Amino acid sequence: MPEFDERTALATQADTKVELAQLFTDTPSVTPDPAPAQAPANPLPSLTVLTGAIVVFAVASAWSAGNLLWLLLIAAAPVAILVWRARGIA
Fold first, then answer.
1. Which of 56, 49, 34, 59 is closest to 80 using CA atoms?
2. pLDDT tens for residues 79-90?
3. How confident is the model at residue 39 (pLDDT cuts 50, 70, 90)?
4. What is the C-alpha separation between 19 and 25, in angstroms, rounded?
């Protein structure tokens, strides 16, 4: 307890960071453990959303325009996925 009271008094009287740092020169240093390696994020949810959005857009466009050529956009889904993977997004 006397050491605690002494350090507390010195800490409250310190005006600079240097004075505070001097209070800890005799204490053992603690190094944090390295962060564990994280598994890569699962890209399936983002790719599912992208594919679903392309399909919904193609069907809605084909229905509203009355032109079934819009359904060819569904074939663009795998291309979009490959582009995302190449760019490192998913």
1. 49
2. 877 887 788 765
3. low
4. 11
Contact 50, 20 (CB under 8 A): no
Q: Which residues of 10-39 are buried (b: 16+ CB within 10 A; e: fewer)?
A: eeeeeeeeeeeeeeeeeeeeeeeeeeeeee
C-alpha to C-alpha distance for 76 and 74, rounded to whole angstroms: 5
Residue 32 pLDDT > 80, yes or no?
Answer: no
Q: How far apart are CA 55 and CA 74, in angstroms?
A: 5
Predicted TM-score (pTM) of this structure: 0.44
CB-CB contact of 69 with 75 (8 Å): no
